[in-house]
C-alpha cells in the first residue's frame, strides 16, 4: 500500500485508494497531504494553548483553513505545494511555541504532533507513513474521526470563501481547532465522537450562514436568471470553481479587452447575482460539471482559470491553457498568486486569450436558475398556493455533487421519472444531471429550482425552514420534502452534517454511501437519522412518494 485515502465517493473499490487516487492524486502527494493534516493538528494543539493564554493570531486561523481546503478532493495535486506547506506549518508551530515559552507555558509533551520535526523530503515521507488515517486502529473510531475531519475540511472551504470577502468568525476557527485536536485524543469514546459530529453540524450551519451573508452582502441576492449556454464570436476565458471574488476581479480586468468570460461547472450560479450582470462581456455558461472538463476545456479553445475544486489532471492538449489560483495547484500549471494588496493580476490570462480562437459551440439555448432563499421567499405565496391546491405534491432536495461514474445516470433517470407534481430543489454541480431536461413548470414555477453552488446549500435549508413556518408545523420532517442527495467530496459531508444538526431525517445519500462509514457508524446514522442509500429509480420513487 503506497497511500490510503477514502475521503470521496470515488474511493477505489468503494474502500479506499491505495496506489493512486481515482481522482489522479499520486501516492506521494497523498502522503504529503496526510503529513500536512498532522502538522495542522500540531498547530491546533499549540494554538489552543495560545488562545488560553490570550494570544490569538488571525493568520494562524487562516493558515489552518487554507491548509484544510487544499487537501479537499480535486483541489491541489502538486506534491511540492504540500511539502512547502508542511515546512510553513512546522515554522508556524515553532513560532507559537516560542511565544508560549516566553510566558513559561510548555507544550512540548502534549503530543508527538507538537514536537516532531524534520527538514528533508525523505524524512517527511517516512513520517507521513506513520500518521495517515490508518494509524487509528479501531475502525469505528477511525470512521468517526474521518467523518469529523472531512466535515471540517468542508467547513474550511466555506470559511475560506467567506474570509476572501472579509467575513470571518473566530468561533468557527476555534471549533475547527477543537475538532482537529479531538482526532488526536485517545481518551475520546465512540459517544464522544458522535456528539462531536453533531457539533460539527452546528458549526456547519454557522459557516454556511456566514458565507451566505458574505456572498449576498457583497453581490446581492441571487434572482431568477436565464443563462445562455451557447457561445459568442470573440475569444473567451473560462472560469471554474467556486470563488466569486476571483470572478469579480477577472470581470473587472477584462472590461474593454475584447475578451468574453464564460463560467464552467460550479461557477454557473454567479450569473444569478445582480452584481455580475453589469458586465457586458459576461457571456454565459460553457459546458457541464467538473468531470467533463477534459473534453470541454479542449473545445473551449481559450485559457481556463480554476479557482477551486474540481480540477481534473489536465491533458497535454490543453494543459498550457490552464491557470490555477488560490489553493488550487497542479505541477507544471501556471499559478496566479494574490498580491500583497489582496488583488490578483490576470493580465497574463487575458493576453493568452487574445491569441486564442473563440470557443466551439457545444450546446445552445438557455437554462434558468437563481432560486436562492430571498427569491423563493418572494414567490412564497405562489408556492404555498400550489402546495395547498395539490398542484405541488412533493419537493425533492437533490443538491450535492456530480461525479464521473455511470451510476450517476440514476439522478437523470430519477428526475425524469418523478411525477409531474414534484419539484426538484437543487444546488451544487449535481444539477447538471437534470438541469437541461425539459421538465416543465407547475403554474409558472419551474420543476427544477436551482439555488446555486454547493456553497449555497444553506438556501435549501432556509427554504425548508420557511415552509415549516408558513405551514405552522412543529417538525421540519412533516413537510412534503424528500432528500435524495448526491455526494462526491468533503463539502457535501459538511452539508450533510448541517442538515442532520437541523433535525432533517431520512436523507438518502448516493450513488454509494461513504467508504469511511464503518458498518457500526453507518448503523448509528441509520438508526438515529434514518440515513439511507439509493436503490433503483422505480423503487426509490415509490418509497419517497409513500406508495
Ligand atoms: Fe481516492 Fe477520492 Fe482520495 Fe482521490 S480523493 S485519492 S479518488 S478517495
Ligand atoms: Fe461539484 Fe467538485 Fe461537489 Fe461544489 S465542483 S459540488 S463536486
Automatic annotation (TrEMBL):
Its EC number is 1.7.99.1. Pfam families: Prismane. Its cofactor is [4Fe-4S] cluster; hybrid [4Fe-2O-2S] cluster. It catalyses: A + NH4(+) + H2O = hydroxylamine + AH2 + H(+). The keyword Repeat does not apply. It is found in: Cytoplasm. Catalyzes the reduction of hydroxylamine to form NH(3) and H(2)O. This is Hydroxylamine reductase. It comes from Calorimonas adulescens. The lineage of its organism: Bacteria, Bacillati, Bacillota, Clostridia, Thermoanaerobacterales.
Amino acid at each position: 500500500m503506497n497511500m490510503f485515502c477514502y475521503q470521496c465517493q470515488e474511493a477505489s473499490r468503494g474502500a479506499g485508494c491505495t496506489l493512486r487516487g481515482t481522482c489522479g492524486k499520486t501516492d506521494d502527494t497523498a502522503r504529503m497531504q496526510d503529513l500536512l493534516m498532522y502538522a495542522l493538528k500540531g498547530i491546533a494543539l499549540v494554538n489552543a494553548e495560545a488562545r488560553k493564554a490570550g494570544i490569538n493570531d488571525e493568520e494562524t486561523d487562516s493558515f489552518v483553513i487554507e491548509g484544510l481546503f487544499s487537501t479537499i478532493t480535486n483541489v491541489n495535486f502538486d506534491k511540492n505545494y504540500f511539502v512547502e506547506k508542511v515546512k510553513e506549518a512546522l515554522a508556524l508551530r515553532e513560532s507559537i511555541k516560542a511565544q508560549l515559552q516566553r510566558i513559561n507555558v510548555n507544550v512540548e509533551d502534549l503530543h508527538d504532533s507538537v514536537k516532531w520535526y524534520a527538514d528533508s523530503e525523505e524524512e517527511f515521507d517516512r513520517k507521513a507513513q506513520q500518521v495517515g488515517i490508518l494509524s487509528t486502529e479501531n475502525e469505528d473510531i477511525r470512521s468517526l474521526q474521518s467523518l469529523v475531519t472531512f466535515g471540517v475540511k468542508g467547513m474550511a472551504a466555506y470559511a475560506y470563501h467567506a474570509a476572501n470577502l472579509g467575513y470571518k468568525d473566530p468561533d468557527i476557527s476555534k471549533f475547527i481547532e477543537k475538532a482537529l485536536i479531538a482526532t488526536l485524543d485517545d481518551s475520546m469514546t465512540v459517544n464522544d465522537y458522535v456528539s462531536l459530529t453533531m457539533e460539527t453540524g452546528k458549526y456547519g450551519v454557522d459557516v454556511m450562514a456566514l458565507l451566505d451573508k458574505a456572498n449576498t452582502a457583497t453581490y446581492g441576492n441571487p434572482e431568477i436568471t436565464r443563462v445562455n449556454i451557447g457561445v459568442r464570436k470573440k475569444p473567451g476565458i473560462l472560469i471554474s470553481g467556486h470563488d466569486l471574488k476571483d470572478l469579480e476581479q477577472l470581470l473587472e480586468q477584462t472590461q474593454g479587452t475584447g475578451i468574453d468570460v464564460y463560467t464552467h461547472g460550479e461557477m454557473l450560479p454567479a450569473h444569478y447575482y445582480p452584481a455580475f450582470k453589469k458586465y457586458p462581456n459576461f457571456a454565459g455558461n460553457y459546458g457541464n460539471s467538473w468531470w467533463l472538463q477534459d473534453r470541454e476545456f479542449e473545445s473551449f479553445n481559450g485559457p481556463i482559470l480554476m479557482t477551486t475544486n474540481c480540477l481534473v489532471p489536465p491533458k497535454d492538449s490543453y494543459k498550457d491553457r490552464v491557470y490555477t489560483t488560490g489553493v488550487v495547484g497542479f505541477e507544471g500549471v501556471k499559478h496566479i498568486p494574490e498580491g500583497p494588496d489582496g488583488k490578483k493580476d490576470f493580465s497574463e490570462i487575458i493576453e493568452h486569450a487574445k491569441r486564442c480562437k473563440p470557443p466551439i459551440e457545444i450546446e445552445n439555448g438557455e437554462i434558468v436558475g437563481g432560486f436562492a432563499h430571498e427569491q423563493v421567499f418572494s414567490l412564497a405565496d405562489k408556492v404555498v398556493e400550489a402546495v395547498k391546491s395539490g398542484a405541488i405534491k412533493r419537493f425533492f432536495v437533490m443538491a450535492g455533487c456530480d461525479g464521473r461514474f455511470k451510476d450517476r445516470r440514476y439522478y437523470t433517470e430519477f428526475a425524469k421519472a418523478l411525477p409531474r407534481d414534484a419539484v426538484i430543489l437543487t444546488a451544487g454541480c449535481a444539477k447538471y444531471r437534470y438541469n437541461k431536461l425539459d421538465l416543465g413548470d407547475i403554474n409558472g414555477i419551474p420543476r427544477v429550482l436551482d439555488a446555486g453552488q454547493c456553497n449555497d446549500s444553506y438556501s435549501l435549508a432556509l427554504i425548508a425552514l420557511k415552509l415549516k413556518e408558513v405551514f405552522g408545523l412543529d417538525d421540519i420532517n412533516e413537510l412534503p420534502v424528500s432528500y435524495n442527495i448526491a455526494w462526491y467530496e468533503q463539502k457535501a459531508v459538511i452539508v450533510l452534517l448541517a442538515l442532520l444538526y437541523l433535525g432533517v431525517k431520512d436523507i438518502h445519500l448516493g450513488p454509494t454511501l461513504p467508504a469511511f462509514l464503518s458498518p457500526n457508524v453507518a448503523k448509528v446514522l441509520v438508526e438515529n437519522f434514518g440515513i439511507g442509500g439509493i436503490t433503483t429509480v422505480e423503487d426509490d420513487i415509490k418509497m419517497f412518494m409513500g406508495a
